[in-house]
Specification:
By secondary structure, this protein is of the alpha+beta class. It is built from twelve helices and 23 strands.
Length: about 400
């Protein structure tokens, strides 16, 4: 048990502890380590949440240290590091997209695993969630995919009409405006009088419903939600109101995330150890005059490297390579390296080989670091990026050979 001297004195244990050696040995008096109340300045017991003297809430470092310990344990999982690295690479907030056919929200490209990671990161304070919408949801299966039906509030008939209602003051007849029209005139179907002045002869009410079965008019029908997933029928007061959230990185923890989960820092360190002068990012103007931005660009004497880093939840296909190729085709760096997590497909590998793009792929940050270090420590193999592009251009721009008879 760890208590401050002032706390012991307050509860009358100081003299008792001095008289009893066994009790004195079981109590450790603390000074600066004890949490101090910001309101009254009293030293309190270590681990206390409220001041013994004035009752004010105490701010302790224990909870902060425990939260940090849990976050660091989370960062050691490669699936979490890949996900956070993807977020840090400018992918912005995690916002669900509403399906135009079903009306349900879903996080694009997020399977069960990604949703579980989002939940863990939010509960640990790495992600902040904020409300973007509220939608009705089935109380049985919690889906928000409904058929919506309007019913007569008197007999639950489903075949309703809606229109502008006319009430004739003289005979109290009411019906839809279309039944009063006779040519250019308004004539009461009941008393056959011509209606001339609105407000004097009749009044008009917009958007009124009518039930053909019972003949009654009403302003608001009953609404039924039939779930397309489980078939449960619910009224508006029976459906759930489901909150839809988006997520963003906690700005206070961005530096911590960069240190533990981002690929950029270890890659920069590798390039610098190899003697490269590195700019990250680096914008180069291509032969077309268009500016292209690479994640990193390194120079060392005659050596030159343009490098991009990309990550995805699944292996990257050819479409993920074409953007990088367009940049190197226009800027023509001596060497182009694409760092990918987790890997690339066979079709993408063939494209990279054709374009002279070197690929460093890994399912973990440690794998990427190890493979990039090995690649840069060895002489460049293959024809190189510039030669591959020049060879490709010669094929594309070569004129067709005319036949001998022409």
């Amino acid at each position: 048990m760890v208590l401050s001297s002032s706390f012991l004195e307050k509860i009358g244990l100081t003299s008792m502890a001095n008289q009893n050696e066994e009790l004195r040995d079981s109590i450790m008096l603390i000074g600066d380590q004890a949490p101090r109340c910001e309101r009254c300045g009293e030293d309190c017991a270590l681990g206390a949440r409220f001041c013994f003297s004035c009752g004010a809430a105490l701010s302790t470092q224990t909870e902060d240290a425990e939260a940090e310990r849990k976050r660091l344990a989370l960062y050691k999982r490669e699936e979490v590091r890949r996900f956070v690295s993807w977020l840090l690479r400018g992918n912005g907030d995690i916002r669900p997209v509403r399906n135009g056919e079903t009306g349900e929200y879903a996080y694009l490209g997020s399977g069960e695993n990604s949703l579980r990671i989002i939940s863990e990161l939010e509960s640990s304070g790495v992600l902040e969630k904020y409300l973007i919408d509220t939608v009705p949801a089935c109380p049985s299966c919690e889906h928000s995919n409904f058929y919506v039906d309007y019913l007569c509030p008197l007999d639950q008939h489903r075949s309703l009409r809606r229109g502008i209602m006319i009430e004739h003051y003289a005979c109290a007849y009411t019906d839809f405006e279309s039944n009063f029209k006779t040519g250019d005139d308004m004539v009461c179907p009941k008393c056959k009088r011509t209606l001339k002045l609105i407000g004097t002869d009749y009044r008009k009410i917009d958007k009124i419903y009518s039930c053909p079965a019972c003949g009654k008019f009403f302003s608001a029908p009953l609404v039924e939600f039939t779930c397309r997933m489980c078939g449960k029928v619910s009224r508006p007061d029976e459906v759930m109101m489901q909150s839809i959230f988006a997520y963003r990185i906690n700005p206070e923890l961005r530096g911590e995330l960069m240190a533990h989960c981002s690929l950029e820092k270890p890659i920069l360190d590798i390039l610098k150890r190899q003697g490269f002068t590195v700019a990250a990012p680096k914008t180069l103007r291509g032969l077309s005059g268009i500016k292209h931005t690479f994640d990193m660009y390194g120079q060392k004497e005659a050596a030159e490297i343009a490098l991009d880093v990309t990550s995805s939840a699944t292996d990257i296909g050819p479409e993920g390579i074409m953007g990088f190729f367009a940049k190197i085709y226009d800027t023509k760096p001596r060497r182009a390296i694409l760092v990918t997590m987790p890997s690339i497909t066979k079709d993408a590998q063939r494209l990279c080989s054709m374009y002279g793009i070197e690929v460093v792929a890994g399912r973990t940050i440690d794998e990427v670091v190890e493979r990039l270090t090995l690649l840069l420590s060895q002489p460049q193999t293959g024809i190189g990026t510039m030669m591959a592009i020049n060879a490709l251009e010669s094929v594309i721009l070569r004129p067709k050979t005319q036949s001998s008879d022409q």
